[in-house]
């Protein structure tokens, strides 16, 4: 009989979601293996904008507003636990963040959305302030005249997401997780007492599995009675040379990383599968950033990149335990940075215990399968 | 220490961190500074270490200096000019301090 690797828990995917879950599972005492794909797979974990963001999330979905807020509040605990395991400082900064409005109409639309979220959560959503042009300028020096106002939320912030990615991987190793690169999973077959995970590299038997494979979740989920319908969402980012600190907060589209580079985002294309950046979009991103901070016009852009968001049809995460194969779980989400604290500190212990809590039931994929009444 | 193959005939003078430097017309600024024995062009941003040109062909961004008040210029891609005011690039560039930010 051929030798086959066995493990208690296999996490499929070693990006921010998979790594946060695997690290959390290992902290819960579960013997965990991570099967990761190829370096050149589409990896949102390397392309993201690194915000720990709550503001404006959860319109029509109060559970998501509160889930995001809870994760932002748990982030200091995650950063401290990662530093404890690895010595790596992920540069968490939660000084609050602005959405800068370049038109009255934009500001009004955001204000109405935030009021609606506040109502739908009965006031439990993250706090915010709507600021006029003068109030905004008082708090943030260097703004351009086109900024007509802003939304400020003290809950928001950002992190060094590449260092977060590294810390999770170092943490996994420190906790004894068996991490395997170049182990893309082609097929999953349910067997007695678990699953066969099959790739060109061979196969692994796991008693339980978690799918955290980003865009590939859509293909893998149905193999174990789960579902993850995704839509295409391509984002593009510009990065400048490193600069002395000029902006202490974060914003939806501009943030200064801890080491000085200014990141400018974030576009969305829904009909492109090209991995190349689009110069027209770069121009729009740069132009908007200069209207917010005119002095950015003198700064050199040294990089730009694109990535594909892991976005479900309604933009909300999917957390689900398979009805037909209860030892299979799935975690799919766009906000792998913001939600990393929840994934490591809340979802992983639940998966370790074998059952997702009731608070996660609104994130089940059955919301996409309701009968269509037309 | 680098030595010139032949003496400069057509000379230009510029300053680096306030000191006068002579160069041959047509030199790149990086070559002119190296020929003058200058081996620290900038202080690195994150590690605060001294840096000098490395690739001399516009790729590595190690040779950054401030030229006539414009920060972070690649001295290996700039031809030296009479009267240029060049200063070493000390850490990260600033954003907009002089134009109202």
UniProtKB/TrEMBL annotation, chain A:
Coiled coil (residue ranges): none
Domain FAD dependent oxidoreductase positions: 10-348
InterPro entries tied to this protein: FAD-dep_OxRdtase, FAD/NAD-bd_sf
Gene Ontology CC, one term: cytoplasm
Presence of the UniProt keyword Nucleotide-binding in the record: no
Keywords noted in UniProt: Oxidoreductase
GO molecular function: oxidoreductase activity
Secretion signal span: none
Protein origin, superkingdom: Bacteria
PANTHER family per record: GLYCINE OXIDASE (PTHR13847:SF289), SARCOSINE DEHYDROGENASE-RELATED (PTHR13847)
Protein name: FAD-dependent oxidoreductase
Species for this entry: Pseudaminobacter soli (ex Li et al. 2025)
From TrEMBL, chain B:
GO molecular function, one term: oxidoreductase activity
Pfam families named among the record's database cross-references: Fer2_4
InterPro entries in alphabetical order: 2Fe-2S-bd_N, 2Fe-2S_ferredoxin-like_sf
Keyword annotations: Oxidoreductase
Protein name: Sarcosine oxidase subunit alpha
Annotated organism of origin: Pseudaminobacter soli (ex Li et al. 2025)
